[in-house]
Amino acid sequence: MNDTLLLSLIAFLPVGVAVLLSVVPGSKRELIKTISFAATVVVFVLTLFLVKMYFDLRNPDGSWPTLAERAAAAKQALRSGRPADPKDLVVRYPWIRPFEVEYYLGVDGISLPLIVLTSFISMLAMLASWNIDKYVRGYCMLFLLLETGMLGTFLALDFFLFYVFWELMLLPMYFLIGVWGAPSRVEVDGRVRGGPYAAIKFFIYTLVGSVLILIALLAFYFHPAEPGGNPAYTFDLMRLHEIGQSGTAYSLTFQIVMFLLLYVGFAIKVPLFPFHTWLPDAHVEAPTPISMILAGILLKMGGYGFARIAYPICPEAAQYLAWFLVAIGVINILYGALAAMAQTDFKKLVAYSSISHMGYVMLGFAVWSLAGDPNKWSMAFNGAMFQMIAHGISSPAMFFAVGVIYDRVHHRDLNRMGGLANIMPFYAGLSTIIFFAGMGLPGLCGFIGEVFTVLGSWQFSRTVAVLAASGVILTAGYILWTLQRVFLGTPSPNILGEGHGEGHDLKRFLPDLSIREWVIAVPMVVMAVVLGVYPDLVFRFMEPSVTDLILDLTKAVAGVR
Amino acid sequence: MTLTQVLDIVRTDIAQSLVLFSPELALVVTILLILFVRLFQREGTYLARHLALLGTVISLGLAAYLFNRTSLSAETPEIFGGMLVVDGFTHFFRMLLAAFGVFMVWLCAITAVPSARDASDFFPLLLGATLGMMLMTSSIHLLMIFMAVEMASLPSYGLAGFLKEDRRAGEASLKYVVFGAGASGIMLYGMSLLAGRFGTAHLPTLARELAGAVQSTGGFVLDPIVVAGVLLILVGIGFKIAAVPFHFWCPDVFQGASAEVAGFLSVASKAAALALLARFSLTLAYPLFAADSTAITGALGLTLGLLAAVTATYGNLAAYAQTNLKRLLAFSTIAHAGYMMMPIAAAIGAQSESLYRPAVDAVLFYLAVYLFMNLGAFGVVALIRNAIGSEDLRDYVGLIHRNAPLTVAMAVFMLSLTGIPPLAGFVAKFRIFAVLYDTGFLWLLVIGLINTVFSLFYYVKVLRVMIVDQPEVERPGWQLAPLAMAFNAVLVLANLAPLAPGVWPALQAVTQSAVSWLHLPY
User: Fold this and answer.
1) Within an 8 Å CB–CB cutoff, is residue B456 touching chain A?
2) Which of A81, A502, A516, B348 could pair with B301 in a Cys bridge, judged by C-beta atoms 3.0 to 4.6 Å apart?
3) What count of CB pairs under 8 Å joins A to B?
4) Measured between alpha carbons, how far is B509 from B503 in angstroms, rounded to an integer?
């Protein structure tokens, strides 16, 4: 298949189906859900095909041509009017000529795993949406629009296009949380909480971040490509990488300011302390499938932004700010874990565990010590990228597990559960694997990312490595405690609501997993195990691209000194 | 020179001028025709509306034809002996205003405001105001500017009070008249100061005189008469733009007037006033670029920039508290006026040949987009008013269940006004922000961006009420008429279009050629 068609289909098939859905009568709910699910399945298959095409792209010696090379070749082809290479997985067409904006998509080892993850989780989340019965058509249309936004963000190599896709996710997310989330309510302390509140909080936080990214976007566009030269007038991320890494174009001050603007924009998405406060709200109020998407994919946008934009364009600033970034990463790990430990709301606990786990991602990116061996940083960076994938599997699975029990008992209070292992044995078994994967048990996916980042951070600072590793203990603490409170012991007398627990045949009220739930849970469990024992499945694609990036950045910064 | 020679010159000048003036003439003829036809007309037909539609379409056609035909001509584009100028800028605004007129008549046809009985009063006023606005964009003579502003204002006063049985409308109209008269008086005083100081009211000549005076004094000596004159004229223009602190009329007038008229004032009147501001301040500042007197242009740019910043911020903050939709949109209009003044300030403050064109270009682009998003919003308000009889936000609860297409259209307009990609509003704002960055007006850029976040609160509040909030009682839905459906579809598509391949470049090509052919005094 032609790569233009393939990449464009991956990005725009969901939104195309969403438009199609607008002519299907809203009363045909099953049909609408089936069409939407079919669309997500097709996109998933297309991304698998993309993996195959990426695999075919290898040079005879087994290495991959870098994205920058392929992008440059595509640019050459475009300039000379030759037809572009239909297999190079880079798509470039002029789009908005007055601003040199291109319709410019591309795939490399950094984005490919995230693209597959996105289509995979979207497919499962759509299946998990089956029990949504409110305004099904609107839900599915927004869901598909969201999928286009997510895939487009990972595919775009033009900063402007990236920004458009990035913002495109805001609106569907706002409505999905606001309309299909928990209804508005007044808390005991008089604060208004609920879906609408959480949704607007999410919207405003993210828009503030986007606005800062917009400044950086304009600044790169108008900044001279070489000292004293004309403005660069480009949104081409590969070209901006080149300019940023040339070491002469951007002053250190400029880089630091730009890095900080991008930092806040991406940190809000990740989310990094102190910009994380929207996340627990959004997660708690969102419906289960949206929590899955939010935790599984949206949080990865921030990490991807660092790896694709902030680090490669402003390497000196990243290096200069390394200690600050490391500190933020460690705070995230410890603070998230401690906060998770304090929760009695099952979903909030999982939300804080996400914050803790994303701390490893920031830590892995940040531990860049010039004195040390770049291979160690490469290891940490790879670990961070892997952690994103691992977390993208384990955290949607955890949210799904929470959703399963919420559907049955209609509350999420950990103190009112217990003993579920006897009542729902299969559910308990799968959940345990999932939570252990989140905890980072060796043999499951969470382990690899955490161990690589911690090992990589050892040479940066032993204190940091020790602190980060101690996060694993805290994680084990809250995960085990949670498992104990939910699955072990005897069921709380209030498990079905105040005073409704006793005297009931709980097995009748709490049936084990349905077939649909099996179908959703098993792929995630399988992936958690597979990635745990065979991480090379991801590293094979990811590692060459990440290592290239690390070498480029190290060279760029070393050249300056 | 004999009398016949003079007459010959006048005759050829007039003959040429009339051709270039034909879009305006089309409106004049239409107005006369409507007034004439009503003499023989029995009550209760929509003939006036059909005529108005025909007139605006012909005017649009003529404007577009002239824009295409007349390219950068060597001869001076000044017509009627230097009263008006027909350059790319004028062409663009005539097309914009005529196109807006077409949409306006279409909207009036959908919402049945005015009623058949009032149509032959309403449309001459509407077209008359449009005519005045066209003149505002092309005047380069102080006297003509004043006449044009009055010609646009007087019918607007009538339109604002058109809902005769509504006390609010009467109040709105009166308020508009009183404020308007005051502003006109102040502006006229400013004009008399400038004309008296330099002995001419022809703006380009006046600007050259000013630059000459500045140069001959070897730098800028603050001449209080000139400063006062310019500032007083800016007050008058600021009133038309509804820039803070001259905005007080705007929310009340919008609330009192019908949504259709409010939409008209919000788009057309604003476009004309911004055109006037751009033309007046650029013409005045342009010879000073060459004279290299950065003190004056810098001060003028700073003044306009502060005005823009205050206007945008105030509009956005005040809008949040509103529950009446028209009032909310009035403050939104004020805020958008602020955004659009930003590049004008940047163009003058940047003091650079190469930067002022993109800046003015960005304003034209924004206005073209603004037409579609803002008219759309007012149109939805009018359609909802027709269906549920209320313009209060609290009555909008759960509208998504009563009329989904209209609610989705409203969502598109609101988000476009916020400037969320991939909608048109984002593209327009992006261009303004790019200009602000390029000209080095970083403080204004930051204020513009902060304002974007502020504005999200109230635009999304509207959406939250319409879509997210659950109604306490279920109310029946309703269907849109096909013509209304088409109206909204066109505007929604226009808001989605700019990022489609080729649309943005095409629109920018039009605005660019309009700006590249801007008549400025050399």
Assistant:
1) yes
2) B348
3) 72
4) 10
